[in-house]
């Protein structure tokens, strides 16, 4: 069995759990993307653990928190840094803008692997800078830039309930809507972000941010390789039904 076949064997049953076939037998148009987006959600938790615990209380994935932190910093909270929050916000927006320009001429499903590969390089750069003892600003900028790329392509793919970073709306739907397949996706999404933050926090606090960033780089590289496998992208794969 080839490595591509093994990856398909792992991903397809997971995708079917997140998006079961319709009563008429119709398959999900999202292919194997859903489990890969769950992995990206886990990575979001890891990198936010690195940035918040290791880079001075700033987020690089959760921009809602960053906006709030910026307000607190401007109000005079000395434990927070307005320049760092602004740097994270600006870098995130730059990444999203760059990916947004690409998507005007490239299908979102075909952008996914190259942009995750670019994100892998950016997080790898943050890992190298951290290992060399670089100060927080450069690491914050690289991580936030990568998260901007990730969020832009995920936004374009629009796979229901799998945003990879924000879970407020996910939690609302989980509590407010009747139980069903969407509830399962929402629960898995929240669990993935929580476990990513837990794993990242344990690594940062116990071994240092280098280990947490190495985990993020490894997972991102795996996601990119899964999507780059020959024959993986089909018409409609990764796009919501009309």
Characterization of this structure:
The chain has 9 helices and no strands. Residues 230-242 have low confidence and may be disordered. The protein has 242 residues and is mainly alpha-helical. The chain has helices spanning 3-18, 33-54, 63-75, 82-102, 108-131, 136-157, 168-176, 181-206, 209-228. Helix 1 (3-18) crosses helix 2 (33-54), helix 2 packs parallel to helix 8 and helix 3 (63-75) packs antiparallel against helix 4 (82-102). The protein has a single domain, classed as Growth Hormone, Chain: A, CATH 1.20.1250.
Query: In CATH terms, what is the architecture?
Result: Up-down Bundle
CATH class: Mainly Alpha
Q: What Rg, in angstroms, do the CA atoms define?
A: 18 Å
The residue fraction in helices comes out at over 70%
Structural class per helix/strand content?
mainly alpha
> Could you give the count of β-strands?
0
Number of domains: 1
Average of per-residue pLDDT values? 86
What's the N-to-C terminus distance?
36 Å
Shape: globular
Tell me what portion of residues adopts beta-strand conformation.
under 5%
The ordered string of helix (H) and strand (E) elements is HHHHHHHHH
Task: Flag low-confidence runs.
Answer: 230-242
| Major beta-sheet overview | none
CATH topology: Growth Hormone, Chain: A
Please work out how many helical segments DSSP would assign.
Answer: 9
């Amino acid at each position: 069995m080839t490595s591509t076949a093994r990856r398909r064997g792992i991903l397809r049953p997971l995708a079917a759990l997140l998006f079961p076939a319709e009563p008429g037998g119709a398959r999900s148009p999202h292919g194997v993307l859903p489990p890969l987006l769950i992995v990206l959600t886990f990575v979001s938790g890891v990198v936010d653990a690195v940035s918040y615990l290791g880079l001075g209380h700033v987020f690089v994935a959760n921009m809602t928190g960053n906006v709030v932190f910026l307000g607190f910093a401007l109000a005079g909270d000395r434990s927070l840094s307005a320049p760092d929050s602004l740097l994270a916000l600006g870098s995130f927006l730059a990444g999203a803008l760059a990916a947004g320009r690409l998507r005007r001429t490239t299908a979102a499903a075909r952008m996914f692997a190259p942009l995750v590969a670019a994100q892998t390089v950016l997080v790898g750069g943050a890992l190298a800078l951290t290992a060399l003892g670089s100060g927080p600003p450069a690491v914050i900028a690289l991580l936030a830039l990568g998260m901007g790329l990730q969020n832009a392509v995920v936004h374009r793919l629009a796979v229901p309930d799998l945003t990879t970073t924000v879970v407020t709306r996910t939690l609302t739907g989980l509590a407010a809507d009747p139980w069903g397949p969407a509830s399962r996706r929402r629960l898995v999404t929240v669990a993935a972000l929580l476990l990513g933050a837990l794993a990242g926090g344990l690594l940062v606090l116990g071994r240092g941010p280098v280990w947490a960033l190495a985990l993020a780089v490894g997972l991102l590289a795996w996601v990119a390789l899964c999507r780059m496998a020959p024959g993986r992208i089909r018409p409609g794969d990764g796009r919501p039904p009309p």
